[in-house]
Amino acid sequence: MTYEALKKDPEIRTYITQADATLSALGYTEHSFAHVTHVAVTAGNLLEALGKDERTVELAKIAGYLHDIGNLINRSEHSQSGALLAFSLLQARGFSPLEIAEICTAIGNHDEGTGEPVSDISAALILADKSDVRRSRVRNQDFATFDIHDRVNFSVTESALHLDAEQKNVELTLTVDTAISSVMEYFEIFLERMVLCRKAAERLGLSFRLCINNQHLL
Predict the structure, then answer these.
(1) How many domains does the chain have?
(2) How confident is the model over 34-48, as pLDDT tens digits?
(3) pTM summary value
């Protein structure tokens, strides 16, 4: 079973759609196919560039695609509930126990509240997920009612995660419109995520760097 096959699976697509609908009702940013596909591809590309084997890269993509499915049940502890949902879905599709364990471990550890980069796949998933900050994820179209999360995400006009395998660093580069949100507000809501990214990079033998508006802050 491959990442591309899972992307076409109607049952899984339904769960991702409904998980995102739950977050939409709660006022969260987009967590649908654009986000999970971005995370899947980014996680896979990171491990591929670091020379990991083809199947490990594939498992990272699958973990990325399924990582937010737990929001179907509740936003609270969604990484743990997502890991349990993924366990059943993957078991039904013939994944081996070891592959299920690797994917579920990554999903269960991707959230900054309780997660830790305990494996290469989990580290890649964390970096891919926490670096997906962009204007297009904001659903609220009424600027007057933006909360801090809306403002910070909407202020990011460009974002990219760059890996320099030779220099052993991974850098999140952001362009922030400071007329909409200050750099300080970014740190106010995302500092815990950046700390987790640093840990994830270290798990992969890398240093983590953050560059906002051409200024290196980490």
Answers:
(1) 1
(2) 999 999 999 999 999
(3) 0.96
Which pairs count as long-range contacts for 17-26, CB under 8 Å and 24+ apart, including other chains? 18/72, 19/68, 19/69, 19/70, 19/71, 19/72, 20/68, 20/71, 22/71, 22/72, 22/74, 22/75, 23/71, 23/75, 24/139, 26/75
Percent pLDDT > 70 in the chain is: 100
Distance separating alpha carbons of residues 97 and 95, to the nearest angstrom: 7
Residue type, 85: L
Range of the domain at 195: 3-216
Residue type, 26: L
Quick one: tokens of 90? 């993957």
Q: What does each C-alpha distance from 171 to 45, 191, 202 come to in angstroms? A: 14, 15, 13
For the record, the structure tokens of 187 come out as 């740190």
The rounded mean pLDDT for the chain is 97
d(CA 140, CA 143): 7
Q: Is 170 helix (H, G, I), strand (E, B) or coil?
A: strand
* Residue 1 to residues 4, 58, 213, Cα–Cα distance (Å): 8, 10, 41
pLDDT at 218: 77
Beta bridge partners of 158: 175
Domain CATH number, residue 155: 1.10.3210.10
